[in-house]
Amino acid sequence: MRQSSAEDGAKRLVLALEASSRTYAVAVGDGEEPRAQAAVPRDDPSFRGLSELVSRTLDRAGERFGDIGTIGVDVGPGGLLSIRAAVAYANGLAFALGVKIFPISSLELMAMAAQRAHPGPILGLRRGLGGNTYAALFADGELVDMRHGPPDSVVPAVAGGLARVCVAGTAKDDVEGLLAGVVAEHSGIEDADVAVLYRAARAAAADPERLVPAASPLNEGSRIFHEPEARRHLQRP
């Protein structure tokens, strides 16, 4: 792992790691948009690990590991093994570099992408194991509620009673029969986008309270899904 020399100045780069979609994706930069990004399908036999993908992306940007000042990571929900790998890598790299992490859920990333063209409430959905669903409602850029369980239970609990909602992350047909009287339109957003994650992490880098020393994967065992008190004080993962 290459390090920057002391004269390189402050650590200014943002590194974004996304692994909840069908790919492992990396973006890096210090401006409004990533300077370089790359993605590899999860099942690509040529994939040699996140470290190699990050190193290659940094080389493309003409930067070094030691220039990284903030790491943004998609904590899921998504592919269990790929999310765990990305979070573990982010934690290890953050520790090695002495920097902090911006954790964000794939549900929020999809909602952020959808909000560009669809003002109003956004319902983020992700299928889980055993026929269960992760559901999260966002309004005015803030998380309102997040639940996990059978779709015919959690979807009405999160979005029932709304007049209209935009769905991100799954087909509109998956919710039409579950939200009586609610007009549901689909955003066309099916997965998290590493460029959206990069922009979110760059914005968060200016607010130390949004950064953590280590991230945890968001899955069915996460506290927010089992403790009512955690839902009453909703925060980003």
Question: What does it look like?
Answer:
The chain has 237 residues and is α/β, with parallel strands linked by helices. The protein has 2 domains: 6-106 and 192-232, ATPase, nucleotide binding domain (Nucleotidyltransferase, domain 5), CATH 3.30.420; 107-186, ATPase, nucleotide binding domain (Nucleotidyltransferase, domain 5), CATH 3.30.420. It has 7 helices and 10 strands. It has helices at residues 50-61, 80-97, 106-115, 151-159, 173-176, 194-204, 228-232, and strands spanning 13-18, 23-29, 36-41, 68-74, 100-104, 122-127, 133-139, 142-149, 164-168, 183-186. The strands form 2 sheets. A 5-stranded mixed β-sheet has the order 3-2-1-4-5, sandwiched between helices. The chain is elongated and about 55 Å long. Residues 1-9 have low confidence and may be disordered.
